[in-house]
Each structure stands twice: as C-alpha cells, then as structure tokens.
Amino acid sequence: MCDLLRINTDRGTMLSDGKSRFSKDGKPIYHFLGTSTFSEYTVCHVGSVAKINPAAPLEKVCVLSCGICTGFGATVNVAKPKKGSSVAIFGLGAVGLAAAEGARVSGAARIIGVDLNSNRFEEAKKFGVNEFVNPKDHNKPVQEVIAEMTDGGVDRSVECTGSVQAMISAFECVHDGWGVAVLVGVPSKDDAFKTHPVNFLNERTLKGTFYGNYKPRSDLPGVVEMYMNKELEVDKFITHSVPFAEINKAFDLMLSGQSIRCIIRMED
Amino acid sequence: MCDLLRINTDRGTMLSDGKSRFSKDGKPIYHFLGTSTFSEYTVCHVGSVAKINPAAPLEKVCVLSCGICTGFGATVNVAKPKKGSSVAIFGLGAVGLAAAEGARVSGAARIIGVDLNSNRFEEAKKFGVNEFVNPKDHNKPVQEVIAEMTDGGVDRSVECTGSVQAMISAFECVHDGWGVAVLVGVPSKDDAFKTHPVNFLNERTLKGTFYGNYKPRSDLPGVVEMYMNKELEVDKFITHSVPFAEINKAFDLMLSGQSIRCIIRMED
C-alpha cells in the first residue's frame, strides 16, 4: 500500500503544497479520497489516475470503483476460490454482491449468501449466489449452520459487513486444513476480533484486504478489460440512474437499501 | 489433516479393533500419539510409519519429530520468508529454534528472537537468530519495539510459545500490506485471540499450522534428505543423551530448560 497517497487522501489536500484545489465563497473544499468527483472537472494526484480502454463506456465502468473492486478483488485476488469450491459471502450489499460475482467468475460451485435481510436473496441470485442463510432463521451460530451444510466448513469465506460478529463467524465457518477467510468490512474503532486460537492451529488462514488488493493505477485497466471481454458483468450492479440535480434521491436509494449502484448523470 | 488417524491417536488404541497392543500386569497401556515409542518394539498404524533413507543415523534423525518439524515447517512451509527478509520468532525453546533454523535455511537476513528468558539468547545464535528482544526490558508492547526496529514491522513472524499474548504480539508486529504471522503454539482452552480487526484490513495474513503443515508419511523422508544434504542442521538440537534407565534425568533436563533435545538411548 502506498503510504504517500494514503496520508494525502486522509488530509484532503494535494501532496505538492498541502492545499485544496476547490473552494466555495473563499472557503476551501477538501478533496475526497484523492479523486474529488461530483464535479465536471477535478484535480487529482497522478497516482490517483489510471488510463483505461477508451472504448469503455464511462457511465458503466464508473461503478468499478471502491466498493465493487473491493468485493470482487477480495474474492479473485485474496480468497482465490478454486473451480468447483464452496464460498460463503457475509453481507449481500454492493460489496458482498461483487464478492459473489468474483466467486461466480472463479467457477465456485456453491456460493452461500449470508444476510440478516432475506429480501436481498432474490437479487443476489443474479450474482451467482445459489444458497442462502439468514442467521435469524436459526437458533445456533451461523458458522455451525454452514459447517453442517458443507460437511465441516466452506473452502473460502468473504466478510463484507463490517460487523465484528460476522468477521468471527466468517473465520469460524471455513474448513480446517485449508479454509481461507477474507475480511473486507471496515470495523468500528472499538471492535475486538475474538476467536479461540485453536481455530488457527487447525491450519486455517485469515486474511484482510484493502481495496481488494488492487493497485488502482496498474490494476484497474485490467478490471475494465474483464468487463470489455464480458467476464465480469457490470450492468447488473447498476439499478438506478439520476441526474445530478436529484443527487439526494440517490442517497435516499442507497440509505434505504433499494439501490445497489445508482449512477449520477452530470448532464441530462 | 487426516481425521481418521487423529481420532485414533486421541483414543490411544488401534484403529482396526479399538484395542491397545500393550499391557502391564493385565492392564492395557494405551498408545501415545499413534507411535508408542520408548519400547524396543512397537505396533503402529501404517499411516504412522514413514520409510526414510536407510543411511540416515537414527540416533540423530529421531529428533525430526513433532517439535522440530513443527517449528521448521511453520517457517519453510507456512511463513515462507523470502531471501533477505526479516523474521521474528516468539519463544526460543526447541520449536522456536527450529523455526529460526527454517528462517536461516530460507535465507532470512534478520532473525529477531523474542523470549522472556535472556539466557536463551546465546544458544539461539547457533540457529541463525541475530537480534534479540526480551519484552521485560521494554515498557511498551513488544510489537511496538519490533515495529521501531524494522521500519513498520517484520515481513514474517512465527509464534512458538502457546501464550495468547505472544500470539497477538506476533500478529501485530508484522508489516501492513504483506506481513504474514504464523501461530504454532498450542493455546489454552480458555484463551481468546483478540485484535483490532483493522489489523486485518491492512492486508496482513494470519495463519495457523499443525505439525508445520507436513504430512508425516509423505513429507518426513524429504526432511531427512535435507539433513543428509547438510541443509538442515540437526546435531545442534541434541544437547544431551542418556540411557533409558536414566530417562527421568531427561525429563529433569527438559523441565528445567537445560536441554533442547535429549536423546534416550534404548541400549547403552
């Protein structure tokens, strides 16, 4: 990971002079995550810019940003499920659906979606999820439910919720001897990951990932190529589209869980 | 891992009939760990027997058993340090020294030994350990001491103590982005591994291992070959040798920490 740009990103200013390039009524507007989109023109550090295939439709591939790359990369770059294997996905929001898409593209045979909201299950089928567990439907820990479904545990799990309890379940639901659990969700500051260490002794692996282990500048063009080659399906992530003037509608759709990704059109 | 033999090992009886092959005064003596050594003849399940190079000196290669293979394999099979990298070893008992030997054989440049007993440091130099930290000498967590020594953390760490606090330190002392921590020690039943999950988010990996990930039957002959080819040094692990009649002396040497490995000679 690039310490230089991460620090700059946190600061919200440009690296060269520590200043912002935006202002309103004389007050600075800070840069968000090094890209500062939602403007027609922007100023980015060169490390935040990647050149992609010019034939790629920008109104589609713009969703190949933080959330989708994080989930997709967590599966294809970190969990790396083998063809025919079993994968549990914790959380079926946009990141979890992208993780499921990664499992589908990898050829996983069983993709088990875990979510507290069963309304998400139908949509998740489009992303390859073919079995579903709602922890609320069971009176034992979800890791035990999954262990019973899979004769001891799944080959891989990907946690996309940010809930520390889901992180523990995701680790404890993988199979002894070869299971790999990948933590994607951003935890709260006060959370503690607790598990009995004998779970490690039994040859399990726990990995974390940031941005799906993609290096944006060098790796994003390849993700766009996967879309152009029809391996990675992007359109199904885009459930809504609104003009910029209605951007608050997009926030409502996101916060109410109705949208997976809503495109903001700068011009209508 | 082989469920079949592990269950049998725990039972202390043969798999075929659930009975023991040893007795004294009519009372059964149960099989220990599937091998039941300390007898001139023994009965083992075929899965517990490996054929090694007949030229190998048995009074040396007998130490290539649980402890040494566990530590050595934890480094060479699981942590896999690259040439020139940095490795922290937690616990400089026999397992930790074997882990250090694995780091030495792998070509690690910095091998940092961590132990609460500074008397172990001199001996550890023979196993390639070239820097030492006694947590008692510092008034901050050992992971912070190591992070300062190594500009952010070691490339690999191997925990060989069984202390859950050492496990947490071993995980927290590896570098963000690529660090791998391997847990070898057998924890207590009530221990809980606790860490802030953001440590995973920063692309660290935590792995457990059992018996250094060696499959005894298929892999042990290759470890013996490493000794025969003078890659893996075995003699330095053998600090004492006693005849069978003085076996209790060997236990004293072990419990007092004076021996690394003491050979029990069945005939003198």
UniProtKB/TrEMBL annotation, chains A, B:
Alcohol dehydrogenase-like C-terminal domain: from which residue to which, for each copy?
A: 94-226
Q: Which SUPFAM superfamilies match?
A: GroES-like, NAD(P)-binding Rossmann-fold domains
* Keywords attached to this entry: Metal-binding, Zinc
Q: What is the lineage of its organism?
A: Eukaryota, Viridiplantae, Streptophyta, Embryophyta, Tracheophyta
Name-wise, this protein is Alcohol dehydrogenase-like C-terminal domain-containing protein
What is the organism field in this record?
Prunus persica
Q: What do we know about how this protein assembles, alone or with others?
A: Homodimer.
Instruction: List where the protein spans the membrane.
Output: none
Instruction: Give the Gene3D superfamilies listed for this entry.
Output: Medium-chain alcohol dehydrogenases, catalytic domain, NAD(P)-binding Rossmann-like Domain
Looking up Pfam families in the UniProt record yields: ADH_zinc_N
GO MF entries: metal ion binding
